[in-house]
Design goal:
Blueprint: H1 3-13, H2 23-32, H3 62-76
Helix pairs in contact: 1-3
Length: about 80
């Protein structure tokens, strides 16, 4: 996932109010959703991970899916 997903997750975690300026980033997240309802891993970094990465670029990512679902639920809640 790109930085927009993680930035919005930060706003969610900080207890920020939803804002119309977030709409473009929300649309990007929604557009990246695969037909099976999951989000792919888009990037891999050469830094040493704190836990072993078993995900492949382009394939569904459990972490990205969790993050995207959490952000979308927060943004779209009444």
């Amino acid at each position: 996932m790109g930085p927009q997903e993680h930035d919005l997750d930060f706003f969610h975690a900080a207890g920020s109010e939803r804002d119309s300026r977030m709409a473009e980033a929300i649309q990007l997240i929604e557009n990246k959703r695969q037909p099976d309802g999951r989000w792919p891993l888009e990037n891999s970094y050469n830094e040493a991970p704190t836990s072993p990465m078993t995900e492949t670029i382009g394939k569904a990512s459990r972490l990205n899916t969790l993050c995207a679902m959490r952000v979308l639920r927060w943004y779209h809640q009444a």
